[in-house]
Amino acid sequence: MMRPIYAGAVGLSLGLGGAFAQSRPVSLGRPIPAAELGRPVVSSAAPSAFQTTSYRSERPVLPALNPGESVPLLAPIGSSPQETLPQPRPMPSDGTPGTVVTPPASPSTTTPPTYGPLYGPSYGPAQVSPGCPDGHCLPGGPFVGACPSCDPGIPGYSGFWQSFNDVGNQFYTNFDFLMWFVPDINTPLPLAQTSPNPFTFGAPFPAGTVNAIGSTDLISSFRLGGRFGGGLWFDPCHRNGLDANFFFIGPASRDLVATTNGANSLWRPYIVINQPIAPTPAPPPQRPNFADVVANVGEIGTVRVRTESFMLGTDANYRRRLLESCGHFTDLLLGFRYMHLNESLTISETGTSTPPNGPAPITASLTDRFETTNNFYGWQFGLLVHKQWGPWSADLTLKCALGPTSSIVDISGSNDFGTVRNVGLFAQATNIGRWQSTAFSVVPEVGVNLGYMIRPRMRVHIGYNGLYWSNIMQPGNQIDPIIDQTQVQFPPGFPVPAFQPLSPADPHPVVQMKRSNYFAHGINLGLTIRW
């Protein structure tokens, strides 16, 4: 009975002694040799049969301790031998026991928006783009991208409003509603005159003469139109691209009518320089001095004037960024411009009168038509300056095109009473036909827009545009007010005044081929979208 108890006491003593031997020595007791407590001792002697190891065979070998480390970190049981164990950071040299060591701050894990080779923002690791060497368009050279890392202290540039200028868009388009003023169509003489008094052949114009249809205000100068533009960037940094625009003004038309129901006389004035043959009296010295009487007092007549106008233009430009800072840039434009202007003036008259030698009234009609077409082809250069202040922006566009303007004049006439039916009054054999001329033109354009962003990459704007086009032709200017009286057609039964014909060296009417300058300007309202 005593043997088992004795054996248990011996085992308990050995266990407590081993634990005490592994603890820190104290100064109050004599250190006990490790050999006496059963710790394995490295020696050249062969180990006794009593020595064993307490390590499991599958536990990996611990890595060597770093200098200054006192206790190794044990790998968890079952970890692979190939795993690399994390090394603890050493205590600072001035650290004391009980001090909480704060590891150094790691780099920020927040990555600013970067833009890679594809268009559109991506939030993640920077992607290298062919246009942006480090994936960003940052300041540092004469060509600067969209500055995604600009100082956030710049008022209004960061956040929502910056997205309109970022490098995440490849295309843009704009739509504008145009309200412009354009030049009028003018003629050298009034197109219709009237008086309450009868018109007497060979006498000055009757008293009380007024213009029924004047030489100006033949078409409305206020026109409506539209403009569509767009472009694309070849690189994410918006350094090279294409820009194109198309606009139109009109079509516009106007009808002016002068009518008499017998109370007044109605006529179309012109100029005669022929020498009269007796007994025909000489024309009055004032000009105009002759008239095509549509209806005298007691007769019915109508003069109708119709004007039409339509203009369009387009330009395509290579766009190169010259300068840029955060929210502001200046682009160079080099390209081609085409302009087209088509206008017409048609004068028609219808009168019912009784010939002096005829028993019944005769109704006669006559028409003159003048049409001009202008086409401009020229090389263009310009600048586009953009300023951004938060949601607000301002744009200044300056363009200038140089090249030829090809002008075509079409003159035709008709009547239903004369011996020659394909002529009118101002359209005679000497000027009827299709005539063409070319002249050098300059087409400058200026545009100023004030914009406001209503959504990212969507902006509304209001602005002013002015367009000048030199050396064009308009239909009213092609009317020659001088007519060879011997070429004028008369209805049957009406007396024909006798005049000497004009010299072939100085015929009339002629094709004036008169050029003028065209200035169109006005307000535009629009929307710009980028994607």
Write the layout of secondary structure elements.
Layout: H1 2-22, E1 171-181, E2 192-195, E3 210-213, E4 222-233, E5 240-260, E6 265-270, E7 290-295, E8 300-325, E9 328-353, E10 362-389, E11 392-415, E12 433-455, E13 458-472, E14 516-530
Antiparallel strand pairs: 1-4, 1-14, 2-3, 2-6, 4-5, 5-8, 6-7, 8-9, 9-10, 10-11, 11-12, 12-13, 13-14
Summarize, please.
With 531 residues, this protein is mainly β. It contains one helix and 14 strands, in the order H-E-E-E-E-E-E-E-E-E-E-E-E-E-E. The strands form two sheets. The chain has a ten-stranded antiparallel β-barrel with strand order 1-4-5-8-9-10-11-12-13-14. A four-stranded antiparallel β-sheet has the order 3-2-6-7, with no helix packed on it.
Keywords:
mainly beta, 4% helix, 1 helix, Lipocalin, four-stranded antiparallel beta sheet, disordered N terminus
Q: Number of DSSP helices? A: 1
* Helix and strand run: HEEEEEEEEEEEEEE
CATH-defined fold name of the domain at 162-530:
Lipocalin
Number of strands: 14
In CATH terms, the superfamily of the domain at 162-530 is OMPT-like
From the coordinates shown, what is the CATH architecture of the domain at 162-530?
Beta Barrel
